[in-house]
Amino acid sequence: MPEMRCDFRVDYNKINIFDESNLNDIKYPLIVSVPHAGTVFPYEFMTFTSRSIEELRSNEDLFVDALIEPLKNEGVGIISMNVARAFIDINRDKIELDANMFYNYPKDKLIIENHRCRFGLGLIHRIDANNNPIYKGLLSYNEVQERIKNVYDVYHKRLNQMIAKCVKKFGMCFVIDCHSMPSKICNIIPLSDEIDFCIGNLFSQSCPENMSHFIENSLKQKGYNVSLNVPYSGAFITFNYCQPRKKVYTLQLEVNRGLYAQENLLKKNSYFQRVSSDMCEVIGAFAKKMLDF
Q1: What whole-number distance in Å separates Cα of residue 222 and Cα of residue 176?
Q2: N or C terminus of the chain: which is more exposed, having fewer CB within 10 Å?
Q3: CB contact burial 203-217 (16+ within 10 A = b; e otherwise)
Q4: Where is average pLDDT lowest: 65-69, 113-117, 196-200, 241-245?
Q5: What secondary structure letter does DSSP report for 139?
Q6: Cβ pair 108, 71 in contact under 8 A
Q7: Which of 111-120, 192-201, 227-236, 274-283 has the lowest mean pLDDT?
Q8: How far apart are alpha carbons 199 and 176 in whole angstroms?
Q9: What is the pLDDT of residue 1?
Q10: Of 139, 154, 25, 143, which is closest to residue 81 (Cα–Cα)?
């Protein structure tokens, strides 16, 4: 019996792809990107998934957009994706597609066999965070190209524009790509203490060490355990946008979800406000320091 085909088309005119703040009045050469906190699931997509919204949200970076929201009042440039990560992961290269997920993958198209695709977490996620299949059947390659055009490209075009504006105004730009990491991962890393924050700088390739050390030391001064490049050294946005010769630097900042949320219940915990305040103080201080680097 042939496998079911997931044929649908999304009306993207009904979706606000991203939110942005301070684009026209950026006070510092700093942009904060939040690619994985989106909670918008297109209706058409939901008719072809075998998972509930709660299950699909296990793939998202829970409340990271809310954690950094106070920075909007500080003149820091912010861009935050509204569309759910389980629909399309914009922190991947657009060629990271698992050919086995499609019933009509082009025969002449290059097949990328990287680890993210193998594990089901490429540009289009095959599984949720609990290793359950997301789709009821095979996808249309053409429909996924529409996702790329209407969601992925839209976000990255705007991020590029924000960076260009920063460079024009200040002569440099620093992008902090904000994420959260599951507490279970933070517990199993072979370090003496549970990780609260992870700073990824591509092993000192994405920015000068004094910049990442400023954030690292500032978080440590607030009592957090900070790891450098373990378990995350940086993904697509950190790698793709860093251009040190043009004074465009990047850093991936990961926060342990267990610090501020009840992960399984998708709820904030009583420490949320403290973690948010600490993060924003550190990033805000870094923004001001950027003018001196």
Answers
A1: 19
A2: N
A3: eeebbeeebbebbbe
A4: 113-117
A5: E
A6: no
A7: 111-120
A8: 10
A9: 41
A10: 154
- CATH code, domain with 184: 3.40.630.40
DSSP assignment, residue 140? Answer: P
Cα of 270 vs its chain's centroid, Å = 24
Query: Among 4-8, 34-38, 222-226, which is the least confidently predicted range?
Result: 4-8
Residue bearing tokens 């914009």: 90
Whole-angstrom Cα Rg for the chain: 19
What's this model's pTM, rounded to 2 decimal places? 0.94
Give the pLDDT score at 63.
98
| Domain range enclosing 16 | 5-290
Structure-token match 């403290």, residue found: 274
Strands 173-181 and 138-139 come out as unpaired
Domain total of the chain: 1
Q: Is residue 186 over pLDDT 80?
A: no
Is the peptide bond between 231 and the residue preceding it cis, with omega within 30 degrees of 0? yes
